[in-house]
Write a structure and sequence with these properties.
alpha+beta; DNA Polymerase III, Chain A, domain 2; five-stranded antiparallel beta sheet; 18 strands; 43% strand
């Protein structure tokens, strides 16, 4: 039985687009998530319902124009419903998000202060009880690492998606290959530091196969100018880090996905 959370928090994002982008990326994996809030910011760590993928995201208070949380709070939210409200705002709108244990509801205030378009719209959304314990942090080591602009990886995944529902990542020598093998068609995209990659490091060869449903959906949800870093070892979960969504130099800010490999049988 979840204990009743006591307290409140308030945050303000200068642009509704900031919060919309953050919520959209997490919503790819999970609709209902626990938010861990304290005086330093917001943390989310949750598995997808099939327990194949996990997201670990930290939004330090520095990315918000205003942030106030006096005591630790753990409260659930339906991201799909929150996203519907945030989509009512435009890029020139700011957004305030408040929660109080007294009402057990989120208050979403979308404001526009520009001239004749000035407006203030308020919505409420019930919070959710959080019954599960926090998902533990994965302890993994990786043999290979590749970094690229999100638009590059989006194009690669679009190529693979038309031939197969899974993708094989292979790092060897000075290149990375992204391979899709279907019943009728196949695709092989070769990337290197001279062709598409910003960085490529490896201590040994690494290869594994993953579901397009996770990697493809995650990459499509981020802005094209973000940076994507893939870390992998043979037949181990891939670590997919997104940089550039959070407009901050704070070293504690991160959005990371872990995706389990697809086990191939003979």
């Amino acid at each position: 039985m979840a204990q009743k959370q006591l307290g409140s928090f308030h945050l303000k994002a200068k642009s509704v687009e900031t919060l919309k982008q953050l919520v959209s990326v997490i919503n790819v994996l999970a609709a209902e998530v626990p938010l861990e809030l304290n005086e330093n910011g917001i943390h989310v760590r949750v598995m997808d319902p099939s327990r194949v993928a996990m997201i670990d995201a930290a939004w330090p208070k520095t990315i918000f124009e205003e942030y106030n949380c006096l005591a630790p709070i753990r409260v659930g939210v339906n991201l799909g419903e929150l996203l519907k409200l945030l989509r009512r705002g435009s890029k020139n709108d700011s957004v305030d998000l408040d929660w109080s244990s007294e009402t057990a509801k989120f208050k979403v205030s979308i404001k526009n202060t520009s001239g004749n378009n000035a407006s203030s719209r308020n919505f409420t959304l019930p919070s959710l009880n959080v019954d599960e314990d926090q998902v533990p942090e994965p302890k993994l080591s990786f043999n290979a690492k590749a970094k690229m602009v999100a638009s590059t990886f989006q194009q690669v995944m679009n190529d693979v998606d038309i031939v197969s529902d899974h993708v094989r990542l292979e790092v060897k020598a000075n290149q990375m290959q992204v391979i899709g093998q279907g019943d009728l068609m196949a695709a092989t995209i070769t990337l290197s530091k001279e062709q598409g990659l910003l960085e490529l490091e490896s201590t040994t060869e690494a290869q594994a196969t993953y579901s397009n449903a996770f990697i493809g959906s995650i990459v499509k949800a981020v802005s094209t100018d973000s940076l994507v870093t893939l870390e992998l070892s043979t037949d181990m979960p891939v670590k997919l880090s997104i940089m550039g969504l959070l407009d901050t130099q704070d070293k504690d800010a991160h959005i990371i996905f872990f995706i389990a490999p697809r086990i191939e049988t003979e």
